[in-house]
Amino acid sequence: MKHGIEVENVHKSFGLLQALKGVSLQVQEGHIYSLLGPNGAGKTTLVRIMTTLLHPEEGSVIIGEVDALKYPDGVRPLIGLAGQNAAVDEFLTGRENLLMIGQLYHLPFSTARVRADEVLEQMGLSKAANQTVGTYSGGMRRRLDLGASLVGRPRILFLDEPTTGLDPRTRLDMWETIRSLAKEATTILLTTQYLEEADELADMIGVIDDGKMIAEGTADQLKTKMGDDVVEFTLTDITRKDEIIELVAPLSSKKVVSGEGSTILVPVKSGAEDLFKIVKALDNARVQPTQLSLHRPSLDEVFLSLTGKKSQSKVEMLKKSGRGGHRGSGK
Amino acid sequence: MNKKNYHISIGDQIKFGFRDTLTMTMRNVLRNYRLPQLIFFSTIQPVIFLLLFNYVFGGAVSRGNGVSYIDFLLPGILVQTVVMGSVQTGVGLAEDLQKGVIDRFRSLPMSRVAHIAGRVFADTMRNIIVLALMVIVGWLIGFRINNDWYIALMSIPLLLAFGFAFSWIASLFGLFTKSSETAQVLGFMIVFPLVFASSIFVPVETMPTWLQGFATNQPISQAADAVRAMTQGGPLDSIRTTCVWIVVILVVAVPIAIYKYRQTE
Predict the structure, then answer these.
(1) CATH architecture, domain defined by A3-224
(2) CB-based contacts of A119: which residues, under 8 Å, 6+ apart?
(3) If I label A97, which of A18, A30, A237, B109 is the partner at 20 to 30 A Cα–Cα?
(4) Residues of A numbered 221-250 whose beta carbons fall under 8 angstroms of chain B's beta carbons: which are they?
(5) B212-233 pLDDT, tens per residue?
(6) What is the pTM of this model?
(7) How is domain A228-296 classified at the architecture level of CATH?
């Protein structure tokens, strides 16, 4: 089994802030690996280390069987990077942007031209090829940025939060594109804050928090580890809340949670079946909930169960120390 | 693991260095060309300076020694133009750093020097156009060459080289501040005193004695004197001093800029 990415015990600090406290991961060639974690978890720092932009204090990083720390020049021709901010030039056209990147990958000029057109086609930007990027929508810029990372036909592709800030429809388009890249047997590492996205795209998911890998596995493995589905409903009559909590308690897999207002959250083992039981119980008690849903635990709930603390607190702490805004571009 | 040596040979480094610098120069030339405000400020501003100084201060400064003020002023203004224009090199680089464009470039197998060098060369090319425009406007308001034309013409490459050197200094402002606003303010904070405490607008002899030593020997005065000597005749030793300044600036600024670029996180 060949590995596209092998990261071993990587440490990185910025002054007093320990961004990575010994992270290891392996990505099999041709797989999509998703690094899942909240803001400030260390995702971007890790990506920047793997793409030769940062040097860790400790650890080893092997990309496409080349030691990235010793031979960054040997790694750069193998990789493509699309960061969080669309790193394309507004004053150039879409085609000019890609042509420039092709030349910087040292493709012969004619090859770079052909490649630019191929990528524009692949990203659905052929029509806008000769418009300056300043006229592009947010989604188009992201697609062009992703395209720029493909120009050099990288064996290993790094996508740092490729869908953050995109509207739901554009996000779905982006997922489709990423899936199609994986079919070309490119190894992809993508970071995301969305459990759903990792679930949709990745063969393997690594959950990172506070500079440490706290869980790793396939989506299904993580889901069972991460806790149960939740049935959530809201009562019309808040005075009956305690009574109803007691009523549904036997049906719950864990402790029933009293939510905001008259909302009640019931963790359950086997989703639909338990939902039906709860509805029946409510009906018998002549209770008609105003709202009723069955859902997977949210990322916050996942982090709560994996780390025992709210994922948000870390973000707030980082914001207070003025590092929350730092996402790669400047330090 | 693969034991291959991935270091790039010196020959390839030089070849790619040139190629990548050319690519990046093209990028920045297009940028200068497509952002109209850049062309506007880099051409209109020096023209306004030229007209203002010639017509507002000209009468007061004129020395009555047979040299008309415009013949004295224009060589200085040309130096001022390339020096002020060089600040834009730092501003442009800082913009790239701010926008995260630099992460893309640094992850590419491109030469490490090309990003800065491309910016510097593009600004040098812009200077050619701006200098030509300034000379035309100057000629229209009375500037004349009073020396052999081929010596006068050699002042253009000297001016370009001088601006080139200052662009490398400005690149440091961009690389160290990583903010286009700060790079601009810092650039002008350093350039303004140098430009005004110089022989650009007035003869140094009119300044207080304590200032004269500095004003005479600082690079901007030397460059202004050199261009003056080349276009109007006179002692040529300031040309040599200017060339020494250019070399000294480049020898110091270029390695620091490349080092800083490599270290940028």
Answers:
(1) 3-Layer(aba) Sandwich (3.40)
(2) A98, A147, A148, A150, A151
(3) A30
(4) none
(5) 989 999 999 999 999 999 999 8
(6) 0.79
(7) 2-Layer Sandwich (3.30)
